[in-house]
Amino acid sequence: MRRRLIYEGHLFRVDAIDFTDERHESGCPAVDFMASLDPSDQKTLTHLISCHAEKGRVSNDRKSKELRNGIFEFKTDVGARLLWFYPGERRLTILTHGMKKGEEEDPHIDRAIRYRDAYLAAFPPPKQPGGKKRR
Question: The domain 2-122: what is its CATH number?
Fold first, then answer.
C-alpha cells in the first residue's frame, strides 16, 4: 500500500490510498472512481477536495459529512460520493474510494473502514509528544 498525493493545501494534504503494488487490488480506487465520472462531477469533487485542503473541513452537510465511525464523504449534487478519513496525522486526509447514488451505503462504509484499518497498520500515526510519564 502506498499514498498518492492528490492535493497539497494550506491546511491539509489530501492523499489517496494506492494499492498498485498489492496482489489483491490494483490501482487507486479514489482516482479510478474520479476518472469514471462525468466532467461535471469530477470538477465538483475536485473543488470540494481543494476547499477542504485550503480552508479546512467543508461545513455544508450536503457536500461533506461524517457517515459513520470516522468515515466522511464529499458529495456532488447528483450523488457521486468520495469517502475519506483523518488518519491521526496532523493536517492529512486520506481518500479511500467512491460510490454513486443508489448504491447501498453500508458496504461502502465498511470497505472504507477496512481500508482505513489497513492504512493505519501500514502507516501508524506518530506518537503524540508530551504524554505523561509514570513514576
Answer: 3.30.2310.20
Task: Please give the order of strands across the beta sheet that includes 92-99.
Answer: 2-8, 13-18, 92-99, 81-85, 71-75, 64-68
The answer to whether the beta carbons of residues 42 and 88 sit under 8 Å apart is: no
The structure's pTM equals 0.89
Interatomic CA distance for residues 23 and 133, integer angstroms:
42
For residue 82, what pLDDT is reported? 98
- The ranges of the chain with pLDDT < 50 are 134-135
How many other CB atoms are found less than 10 A from the CB of residue 22? 12
- Count CA atoms within 13 Å of residue 107 on its CB side: 5
Residue pLDDT, tens place only, 37-50: 999 999 999 999 99
Q: Decide: 103 and 88 in contact? Cβ < 8 Å.
A: no
Residue 107 and residue 114 in contact, taking contact as beta carbons nearer than 8 Å: no
At 88, list the grid cell: 491521526
Burial class (CB in 10 A: 0-12, 13-18, 19+), 90: exposed
